[in-house]
Prior knowledge:
Site (Interaction with substrate rRNA): 4
Helix content: 25-40%
Strand content: 15-25%
CATH topology: Rossmann fold
Number of strands: 10
Protein name: Ribosomal RNA large subunit methyltransferase J
Number of helices: 9
CATH architecture: 3-Layer(aba) Sandwich
Largest sheet: 8 strands, mixed
Keywords: Methyltransferase, RNA-binding, rRNA processing, S-adenosyl-L-methionine, Transferase
GO cellular component, one term: cytosol
Amino acid sequence: MLSxxxxxxxxxxxxxxxxxxxxxxxxxxKEKETPFLYLDTxxxxxxxxxxxxxxxxxxxxxxxxxxxxxRDDLPTELAAYLTVMTKLNAKGDLHYYPGSPLLAKFLLxxxxxxxxxxxxxSDYPLLRAEFAKDKRAQVLRQDGFQQLKSKLPPSxxxxxxxxxxxYELKSDYQSVVNAVLEGYKRFATGIYAIWYPVVLRQQVKRxxxxxxxxxxxxxxxxxxxxxxxxxQRGMTxxxxxxxxxxxxxxxxxxxxxxxxxKVLVPEGIGHTCVEWLVPE
Length: 280
């Protein structure tokens, strides 16, 4: 089942949270000269045009990245993320939004490596074209979950694994747990960054319980809700679960998240959450 297209949702509040966390982790890894691997299990198309028919139909970016664009009170924690946004939109108007792999492409160094997988028949060719001239990148049309078996551990023994399936299949929640366990067996010191949507809270709770009962340590949860939980159709919140987070990520997010919530949700509804699911 491959009906999900991220182009309808690019730049929304969930993307903003995910990509801020991703950029903070990458910048932390760059503090050491040793190269690292960026592995993206569900990479998407790479680049999204916010003026296309898909994005224009929902205009979710207007309640996401558009609320940050060209503000003059931006926290320093957003510097890397918004530098990429500025490069993509050099003329000043907001036309393009980077998917996770393109954000990584801009932020990674020459010595670092990217492994990107995407199965969707429309998105894969776009992703491949985006990275055609990037010698650091390997772009594969394969099952992203399987890469945690085949590509880990990296030779550098350093890396971030971003896992963000569409969750259009209910089984994706358990597949995330299974894939992370497989990866952790091979690469216990890697940073695993799991994105999740809150559509039905119970599904997220089951995934979290699976991770908590896995035996893994150092699991941090970061969540931003734009409205209260509901049994109605639609995403009310999203979050990131980070296994082995960089030491300063918790502090950065605790500073940043209240500001981000105020800007993205000026009505003041919803909530933010930063908590350890499993401590060290």
